[in-house]
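Async update (no meeting this week)

Hi team, since we skipped the sync, here's where things stand on the single-chain job. The sequence we agreed to prioritize is pasted below, unchanged from the tracker. I ran it this morning and attached the output directly underneath so nobody has to dig for it. Comments welcome in thread, and please keep replies under the output.
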Amino acid sequence: MTEWAPEEGVRSDEALLVVRAGEGDEEAFEVLVRRHSPAMLQLATRFLGDRADAEDAVQDAFVSAWRKLPEFRRDASFHTWLHRIVTNRCLNRLRSRRPAADLDSVPEQAAPEHQASPARAVESRAAADALAAAMAGLSPEQRVCWVLREMQGLSYESIADTVGISLQAVRGRVFRARRYLTEAMSAWR
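Output:
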């Protein structure tokens, strides 16, 4: 089977896999899981800031998708549908996670080799810690909308569909999150 890509042949392949999986074909579902796991894990890690939590959320999402697949109406792509399930799992975890995660659990981005000086590494770590602390100050709803917009690059319409809220609510949450993060990160300008 080919990997997920926007080509038409792959889309029809994807649709066939979804139909077969919905009929109980475990092998077809395994192919869907392999195709979509990396993107869903990246999304969940950005929401939750912890790889283990993200893996649990993605696993829960795939279990839920397997159970609900016979009900999948195909009015959206499988990827979009799964994206919504993962987002909801992460949002539920964020809501139940008060207080916020320990800052040491936020994964550090690797610096490019040419910038890996000790001073640069310390500065990068401090900036990542400051951003993690600032993001912990967002409500779970604001954080989800901000991550989907700023880190995933989704349109406001896609975010509204994914989260299940109005377009106006998405715009408001992203605006408030940006304003809060700009204020919280002002020392890093």
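Quick observations from my side:
Confidence is low (pLDDT under 50) at residues 1-8.
The chain is about 70% helix and 0% strand.
Reply here if anything looks off.
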